[in-house]
């Protein structure tokens, strides 16, 4: 099993990547072409005590996005939050062609600013590396302007305005990233539709193969693992396609299945609840009434099965 390398400071990151010491201990913009990737980097996993936002170009070969693989010549963005475990993919292209930037932000730099809390609300920090954000040349230029502003500001003489100005640039960068992710979900609708079809098949199999009796109620985590997606990414994709989060969508499918069993079978409510994975019948009754304004028995009576 591979070991995990833990980097606590931006200084340590610079040292392990063969870079000169950072100009600021809590924030740094790194030229990706200057990063020295040693062979041992690919034999372990990494975790950081700071945020890493990167845009890389010419990373070599194909890029896997969800269940699909694409050739993509434009920039690829990744977002890594403190404490996340990740691996560096072995590059397959020429290292001399690599380009892009990495923005490193220590948590302490955001202390006592609105962004310290707001940055945790951006779901793309919970996506995995194969759910990267692809940006066009025009979008990349917009982001590069912000990165250049950040770099210029912390290279200048630090004063009482510096932190606020830099934080506002980071906040703007994240808002643009959110916009571009939303665009990506829309433009890759075909891949999303295929994912939705797979989700539907997995949901049907969960009950037809009696997985519910072993695992209980179906969870977002279960479907995310089966689809090789992170739970956050799956939820965002479903929200774009259906208007519902993954949890809401699962509940909708559960209620549809419950209605079917209540209307065409004579199974008791407790038997139906058990078949759907509920540990307690009361929990099933509560969810059903919350979603339909009726109890399961009231719904069944409308079909005169009892």
Automatic annotation (TrEMBL):
SMART domains hit by this protein: HTH_ARAC
Highest taxon, organism lineage: Bacteria
MF term (GO), any: DNA-binding transcription factor activity
Record-annotated HTH araC/xylS-type domain positions: 201-302
Entries under Pfam families matching the protein: HTH_18
InterPro entries (UniProt xref): Homeodomain-like_sf, HTH_AraC
Record Gene3D superfamilies: Homeodomain-like
Keywords linked to the UniProt accession: DNA-binding, Transcription, Transcription regulation
PANTHER family the UniProt entry points to: ARAC-FAMILY TRANSCRIPTIONAL REGULATOR, TRANSCRIPTIONAL REGULATORY PROTEIN
Protein name: Helix-turn-helix protein
